[in-house]
Amino acid sequence: MNTPDMTDYATAAAMSAPQPGLSTDARAMMMFEVNRKEACVAYVLWFFFGYFGAHNFYLKRIGIAVAQLLLTLTIVGLAITFFWHLVDAFLIPGRVRRENTLLAWTLGAAPFAR
Q1: How far from the centroid of its chain's Cα atoms is residue 43's Cα?
Q2: What backbone phi and psi angles, to 5 degrees, belong to 11?
Q3: 54 HSE (CA, 13 A, CB side)
Q4: CA distances for 103 relative to 76, 84, 96, angstroms
Q5: Model pTM greater than 0.85?
Q6: What share of the chain is helix, strand, coil (3-state, %, to 5)?
Q7: d(C-alpha 50, C-alpha 86), whole Å
Q8: Which of 7, 48, 69, 81 is 20–30 Å from 109 (CA)?
Q9: Domain ranges of the chain
Q10: For each of the chain's 114 residues, which pLDDT tens digit applies?
């Protein structure tokens, strides 16, 4: 049984081509469900690896995550990161909502946006 190689451009193009009987809206909804972010995952990452910015990497906030990681690695920055970590606990739901809204708008599925 052969599995398609995702690095092959022809295979990737064939997989992304519109399927007969699958509307654009249905395809957008499926892509949204596959790629959306979950608050539970973000909180688990925050709880176990929050000082290193893992939840920010998950939510595609790379700059913030790198800053948090670098601050954690320094003694002075660790005190700052402690308070930052606590504040992030309250901000995660809004950030997840924002990331999912951006994804919905990107896919052209405006009804998902609030």
Answers
A1: 13
A2: -65, -45
A3: 12
A4: 36, 26, 11
A5: no
A6: 75, 0, 25
A7: 9
A8: 7
A9: 39-109
A10: 444 444 444 444 555 555 677 888 888 889 999 999 999 999 999 999 999 999 999 999 999 999 999 999 988 888 899 999 999 999 999 999 999 999 999 988 555 444
